[in-house]
C-alpha cells in the first residue's frame, strides 16, 4: 500500500465523528493503513491541531467498536492528524493547503498520492472538485481519488449535471461513491457465497426461486434531518440508492462472478429492470406516511407533527415496490422492496424464497425454503426450513452458513470501504452508470408522486407500514417474511408470515 495524504472536508461534522475517525482508528490497530499515512482535516471552525486531535480522540472513545487499551498507540494514531481552516469557496485556502501538503511530501520524499473525502453536503461537491483542480491539488504526479457520500443528485437531471461537473476534475475511475450498505461484511460476502457453500449452487441451478424480498425497516423518525428529508422522502433517501444496490448484489448471487466483474454485472442487472410507466407506478408502488403510534411501548407523534415538518406535507416516509427483470435467470421472479421510518423494529434483510417442495406432512401445506441474509441488527446468512416439530407454530428452523470466521468481530462498513478506497479497489462502490440507471428507473415514480397520482397511504408508527404493502405481495400469493407478531398468550417475538 502506497503512502497517501488523506484530505477530509467536513472534518468537524457528525459523519466524521461517528464513522470516519473510528474506522481509521480500527484500520490503524489492524495495521491496514499505508505507511506515512497523514490526515488533514478541513472545516470552517478556527481549530488548532490540538483541538482537532482532542475531538478525534473523543470520537474514538464514543463510537469505536474497539475501546482504547494502549494510550501510547492512541497517541501515535493521533499524531497523524492535522487541521486547517478552509472556506470551500476560497481558492486561496486550497493553494495554502497545497503548500502544506507539498512541504510534507517533499520533506519525506513521498509520492504525492492524495485522497479527498467530501464529508459535506452534496451542494458542495462540484465547487470543491473545481477548486481541487484549479489550485493544483489534483495535478500531482501520484494518484488522486475522490470519495463522496450520497445523495448523488436529486433526480436524473441533477445527477447527470453533478457527474459532468465532477468529471471535469476527476476521471470516473478516480471517483469512489460511497453507499455504506455495500460496506457491510455480509453484503460483501455475497460475491463469493457460492464458492464457500457448494450446496447453494444446486438450489440456484434449479432456478426455482419464487420471489425475493428486500426490507429495511427503521424505528427512528426524521430526527434532526427534517430540512433534507421532507424534500427527499424514502424514495430518494433509501430506495434509489441503498435498496437498489442491495437488489443488484443479491441478483448477482447465481451469476458466479469475480469481484472484478461485479461492477459490470451490476450495470447489466440494472439495465434489465423492467421500467414502469406512470400508470404502472400506481399498480406496483405503495407510498406511505406515518401517523401517531407507539414504538417499544413509547408514544410517538405523526410525521406532520414532527418539528420543522409542515402540517400539510405529502412527503413519503415509506415505500414498497414490486420490480421485475428481463434477464435470462430472473425473468418472471418478482423482487419486492420495502423501506420506511417509524416501523415496528429495526431490521435490514434479504429473503430469497424458493419454490416449495413436498408438502409438510402435518399441515398439508408446502414447506417453505428460504435463504435469509441479515444485515441489521445482526449480520449473518442462513438457510431456513420448516421442520415437522415447528409446524404448529409456523416457525422456521435456521441452518447458519458460516460466512464469517468463528468468533470474528466484524468490521464496520466504513472500515471496509476506506480500506478498499486506499487500495483503489472499486468493487463495493456505486459507479456512475449504476447511479444513472437507478435514477432512470425511479424517475417515473418521482413524477407520479409529485403529481399525487399514487395515493399517500397512512400507517401507524410502530406497525409494518400501510396495509397496501401486504396486499402488494399477497396479490401474487406471497407474504412478507419475519414480521414480528404478538399474541396475548405469548408476547415474545415469534417469526412467522404476516397476515
Automatic annotation (TrEMBL):
Keyword annotations: Carbohydrate metabolism, Glucose metabolism, NADP, Oxidoreductase
Pfam families: G6PD_C (PF02781), G6PD_N (PF00479)
Binding of substrate, residues: 180, 184, 218, 237, 341, 346
Binding site for NADP(+): 10-17, 44, 87-88, 150
Catalytic residues (positions): 242 (proton acceptor)
GO BP terms, alphabetized: glucose metabolic process; pentose-phosphate shunt, oxidative branch
Sequence similarity: Belongs to the glucose-6-phosphate dehydrogenase family.
Role according to the record: Catalyzes the oxidation of glucose 6-phosphate to 6-phosphogluconolactone.
Protein name from the UniProt record: Glucose-6-phosphate 1-dehydrogenase
Taxonomic classification: Bacteria, Bacillati, Bacillota, Bacilli, Bacillales
Encoding gene (name): zwf
